[in-house]
Automatic annotation (TrEMBL), chain A:
Biological process per Gene Ontology, one example term: oxidative phosphorylation
Entry superkingdom: Bacteria
Pfam families on file: COX1 (PF00115)
Gene Ontology cellular component list: plasma membrane
Reaction catalysis annotation: 4 Fe(II)-[cytochrome c] + O2 + 8 H(+)(in) = 4 Fe(III)-[cytochrome c] + 2 H2O + 4 H(+)(out)
Keyword Cell inner membrane part of the UniProt annotation: no
Location of this chain's protein in the cell: Cell membrane
The name this protein goes by in its record: cytochrome-c oxidase
Originating gene: qoxA
EC primary class: translocase
Principal cellular location given in the protein's record: membrane
A single GO molecular function term of this UniProt record: oxidoreductase activity
Automatic annotation (TrEMBL), chain B:
Major subcellular location class: membrane
Entry keyword Ribonucleoprotein: no
Topology class, membrane: Multi-pass membrane protein
Intracellular or extracellular location(s): Membrane
Domain Cytochrome oxidase subunit II copper A binding: 97-210
Gene Ontology terms for molecular function: copper ion binding; cytochrome-c oxidase activity; oxidoreductase activity
Protein name: Cytochrome aa3 subunit 2
Claim: Transport is one of the keywords in the record: yes
A family per Pfam: COX2
Naturally occurring in which organism (per UniProt): Aquisalinus luteolus
Record's catalysed reaction(s): 4 Fe(II)-[cytochrome c] + O2 + 8 H(+)(in) = 4 Fe(III)-[cytochrome c] + 2 H2O + 4 H(+)(out)
Amino acid sequence: MKALERHREFSRIWASAPGFKGLFSTVNHTDLGRMFLVTAFFFFIVGGILAMLIRAQLATPHSAFAEPDLYNQIFTMHGTIMMFLFAIPTFEGLAVYLLPKLLGTRDLAFPRLTAYGYWCYVFGGGMLLFSMLFGIAPDSGWFMYPPLTGAISSPGINTDFWLIGITFVEISAIAAAVEITVSILKFRAPGMSLARMPIFAWYALVTALMILTGFPPLILGSILLEVERAFGLPFFQAEFGGDSLLWQHLFWLFGHPEVYIIFLPAAGVISTVLPVMCRTTLLGYGWIVAAAVALAFLSFGLWVHHMFTTGIPHMGLAFFSAASTLVAVPTGVQIFAWIGTMWKGRPDLRLPMLHILGFFVTFVIGGLTGVMVAVVPFDWQAHDTAFVTAHLHYVLFGGFVFPILAGLYYWLPHFTGRQRFFYLGEAAFALIFTGFHVTFLAMHWVGLLGQRRRISTYMPEDGWTTINLISSIGGFILAIGIAMVLIEVILHMLTSRRSPRNPWSAGTLEWAMIIPPAPYNFASLPHVTSREPFTDDPELAVRLASGEGYLGRPNDLRETLTVEITSGKPDYHVIYPTNTHLPIIMAAVTGTFFLSLLLKAYWCIPIAVIGVAALAWRWVWVLGRKQDLPVQDIGHGIELPNASTVEHSPGWWGSLFLLVANATFFGSLLFGFAFLWTVAPGWPPPAWFDASAVELALGTTGAMVGAAAIRRARRANALRQPPLAWLGLCFAGTLTVAIAAAAITLRVPAPVEHAYAATLLVLGSYALFHASLGMLMVAFLVSRTALGFTSAARKTEFPVVQLWIDYLGVIAILVFLVVHLTGWLS
Amino acid sequence: MLVGCDGALSIVDPAGPAARSIALLWWVMLVGGVLIFGLVMVLIALSFRKRAACEDDAGSARLWIVKLGIAFPVTVLLALLAYGLVIGEQLLPRESGETVIVRAEARQWAWNFSYDDLPGRTTQDVLHIPAGRPVDISITSTDVIHSFWVPRLAGKLDAIPGHVNTLRIEADRPGTYQGLSAEFSGSGYDRFTFQVIAHDETGWQAFLTGETE
Ligand code: HEM
Ligand SMILES: [Cu+2]
Ligand SMILES: [Cu+2]
């Protein structure tokens, strides 16, 4: 078979449906990555326009441009859009687009999940845009502190848009994070051991794991606050045993890691692009990986530095101050490794390199002011002033926007297959760089002169007029620069000069393909023996296209293979699902759920929940087969089993990492309970839970029976015995757990009267939810088995269900113990 | 004006011991920061020199990563931390015979101040203190979170419903100082300010005997 013929065949198998309509059913990572990036860039422009409104308002004293009520919506939406709808989705888009190409494979682990995440992002973002267009946007600042956001101070729907819309968007972040983690760990080219992974993959892996552990506290906080607003359960109200500080802890437990979730992918771009610009390889690969991992761990121990003025005890302040300054060490390691890389090679001032220099200047200043505000006494002065706003933009713009612009220009030929033609980019860089520093250097100074953040206007007597005017002029220079980038990108797509393949002479695999990329990426998968396979073998692209690698024979299926995590040895063979509207429908039904909450149409919630459950059932169901698949020949004399016959399928890995996020959520809930109990004023509660030994014993036994029975079912299936009886027992055990959990929710003392009872209600509901989920999964497995979709070979769904039943067991027993013990101890 | 430090709300125009030690901390950090920034920029600029490529990866990793990336920041940061801790320690409200105690209660959008030395008297949006004596403010809130901040005297501390936080302030000289509520609190936030009047000894006695308006 000729290369061209192979290309046609593979394209037919992998292509999305043609035209615009194809976007709604595509599950292809190249398409979805582009869609993510374009949408995120759109939100960047929206956020940027809001920034211009802010600077217009602050340019002069006594500004009559926007009243406080409007101004408050503007800055809140600016911050919210930039953080949640621009920065995180840009990372997701970049990772979705690049990872399979960098890793030498054909798609991500769960193509439909990618699409589902994208649509959740679009619908959730759309909700927030809608609120803005109608003037009912959130207006309490991007960190939404209660009691200001509580029902008494903010009775309007504005706050609900934030809590519900952002939670919806976070589903997409969690989905992408699971997807990215499993893809990096399992979906790589044969031979690509962990040590041979391109550095961007390491950064993406660390970032994804941070999303899985960083977002759940905020999701929990948002749920609690929304429940407080909607139903009056007083988690954050001091007079009823709640505490507004709990929100601050949950928010910043997310919010600080968030900053690194934004920075690390950008650092991944720098680590990828910089060596190419310097015609060399990265200095200290191992050190950089270690630094990224260290940053990830440290960043979870710093959140309190956002709360230095809340009256934390002195010892606590010292600890968090030390941790916050020391986080500069792994950052320093990366910065100096990059400078060392420049010394090692010969840096060339091409456009991506200019933005990298912009990054260095800006980010180093941001890091230095960061260390300053980590010193507690200085923070007592600088906190909540324009100094902090300036600092955070040095970090976010310097640490994210400049690197992303570098990446944009670096990969633009890859996205479009074209060469840059109009040289607007250099002028745009000059404007962005100057504009940025004029805007924000000035804001440091005006902050030191006492200008608070988030004020809509000030007086001439304050003495800030000149500085603010200068800052606003800088802002508009910056905006012109960004507009020029936009114009250049659009012109670029319209001009027709084709780019040569691999225009930068890079060594990573994403360039070893035709550009713009074909839907299948590689006609055959490479065997990787180093970190820069394309440098080692400049003929690699041609050889892969002519089918010399693995899986080079088109056979009507979307096929790829997985590898063992550390070694990169081929592990098993995977068949992907094809184009489908299921993800967008599922996202729409999920959206209905959130909309019903927002509009308080509670009757609609059960319908939406059943809809989601039914779609999820179908989602998994369509992957089944009624015949065993034989071992698959992937070429070069290697045969692999199919994923449906292995212990740890992609679904198992996905469940595992989803449960990591889930466990963090549960842990945050327990933390919140302990926090309220020990710190909140207004304890003890007026009434305690009436503990019951019977319920405790029943629930605990049910959990253990469920876990034991699913194991027996799995063993029976492996031994070709019918597993149905054991599955029935497992169902009964899970049902018992559900009953014991339901009993808690029914018997708690009045939850609107005290945060204690309110928290117990949430704990009980959490166990009840997971028990229902467990029942659904066991029922699924029963139907599968009854209809002949499982066999001794096709066993892979058993371990997945077992994982969830085990998780249910652990959390249920913990919930029962916590709830009943608090009843007894009191 | 543009590069001036003075201003009724300026952190870098201190008028009390706490604000002064923090202003000094800022100037020290600024100088240190500029030096470090300069060093990094010079290193980056030098990489553009024409020279033979360096092939000794292990050697450069030791220099760049171990020495510059780890040893250098650790040293600087430890020194800075120690300095910050010492200052923080000094700013703590410690027991002392001559401390004046004031309670500050915030709500949207007003401050009520009451005085332990003058039971029954409260003032709204104007806080009276004696100059040259430490004053401990017990800060709380009745609705949302606010923050008590007199930039020329000391750092800020939040007013949180259900919690009482204590901040030590002191003015060197008699005079009027501007105060701000520095935690966003909704639509009245722009104008949520107050004044601190520091009296000399006679003025303070007059206030305590109820002669001051
Ligand atoms: C395009 C250039 C930008 C300009 C001119 C700009 C300007 C501003 C200004 C003046 C404020 C202060 C509002 C106030 O305190 O009243 C602000 C707040 C903020 N900005 Fe930006 N910004 C820009 C880009 C970004 C980017 C790229 C991000 C994040 C990735 C970002 C994140 C934030 C956040 C989180 C806040 C705080 C909002 C709040 O206080 O609730 N900004 N921005
Ligand atoms: Cu932080
Ligand atoms: Cu604050």
